[in-house]
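Q: Could you fold this chain for me?
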Amino acid sequence: MPHLVRFMLAHAGIGFALATLFVAAILLANPAGIGALLLREGLFPVALLWFFSGLTFGGAQMGIAVMLLDQRDMDRPVRPSGRPVRALALARAPARRR
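A: Sure. Below is the predicted structure, expressed as structure tokens.
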């Protein structure tokens, strides 16, 4: 899997983990009776709250992670093996025969 795809999925997972903590805190703290109302209505409203909170927190986490990337890391080309490519190797082109 490409490095950037893994990067985005990892940060989306962090956002969904934060959403799990957020929903658990709402259910346990029961502010203004919302936790009891959600649990009384069944699991579906809790799942919806978790999913949409996860989308929000995951999107925010991915955005923060992308904005905090170091530009120098993105400028260096990397081989599939993970080793950086030297600049001189990129400048050389094979000679064409006519």
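A (continued): The chain is about 70% helix and 0% strand.
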